[in-house]
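User: Here's a protein and a ligand (PRP). What would the complex look like?
Assistant: Let me lay out the input and then the predicted complex.
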Amino acid sequence: MLQQLISAEEIEARTREIAAEIRRDFGDEELVLIAVLKGSFIFVADLCRHLGGDVKVDFVQTSSYGAEKSSSGVVQIRKDLDTNIEGKNVVVVEDIIDTGLTLSHLLQVWQTRKPKAIKVATLLSKPAARTHPMNVDYIGFEIPKKFVVGYGLDHGDRYRNLPFVAELVDEASA
Ligand code: PRP
């Protein structure tokens, strides 16, 4: 059963605000958005259209969750960047930061490639789930430790196409 947590309108408004915050920080400089697939494909599509200016988009794919609701604890990089980020202004775009395992691993790898700046934008953050603390520059919404789907987020690859974010409530435990 789905229980809506964040509406499409709230997501749209907050995404515009985050784009404005990013442009405030970087001015008109070129930006390289790195979207972490698959979950961030919708957020990055909306965010890049609100940013305007000189924006490149690249994608990486990792997986630590598979079809499960909790992380395996191991980050696999299944597709790395095509872009050389040395000297670039990079914004990593995530749909959700949960334990922080995925991003802390990726940031460690990418810092060695000497970007000019590297910041993190996430639509959702679950601070109570964080086991790998990190600085997150742009956060859409902080949410409690619930399993959420929609607006790119899945369970077993389903629900990514929902225009809103919802809690997936187990019928048996509801
Ligand atoms: C999800 C999400 C983040 C990561 C966050 O990806 O998109 O990349 O988990 O969790 P963490 O902070 O605990 O590491 P997932 O591995 O489920 O892949 P998907 O985006 O393709 O669904």
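Summary: Helices lie at 8-26, 41-51, 101-111.
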